[in-house]
């Protein structure tokens, strides 16, 4: 049997598994589609192969700042953290900054500096930055499709700045067609 690579092929597979064409299956197309949607939802909620961990850049808009939350895509089922790219939670890049001076000194003299020392110094600076500024506290509820960041939206965040969200996202079966041939999903149609 060839691999199942589309919703239509999956639908035919389900009908054959139920006995069609030998047995007459008396269900409407809507009922079949609903059952496939149910199986996909269950698969996406409980199977590790149905989701991916990835990073999503997001450009903040006026609506986000007005609402004090970011509206997310429905394919995002979880958000682990938000990495801000705005200045408040990172060292500045002016020439009097400690990180800038250390980097300038290391780049200027990298031939004699050890990479391990450089990496340890960078890790230490990041730890100090995290201790002083902390991480961005977030709240996310999947069914609301809203990401709440507990920051001062009027002061800390500006329009057109970026944040990077570390998310768990549903794999789109229309893009990654191998999903339709997953054994776990094919067994779901029986239950």
Structure, described:
This protein has one domain (7-188). With 191 residues, it is α+β, with helices and mostly antiparallel strands. Strand 4 and strand 5 form a beta hairpin. The longest helix is centred in the middle third of the chain and has 19 residues, at 115-133. Helices cover 37% and strands 19% of the residues. The protein has helices spanning 7-17, 29-46, 62-67, 98-108, 115-133, 183-188, and strands spanning 51-59, 70-71, 76-84, 138-141, 146-149, 162-170. It is elongated, with a radius of gyration of 25 Å. Residues 88-93 have low confidence and may be disordered. The protein has a 3-stranded antiparallel sheet, with no helix packed on it.
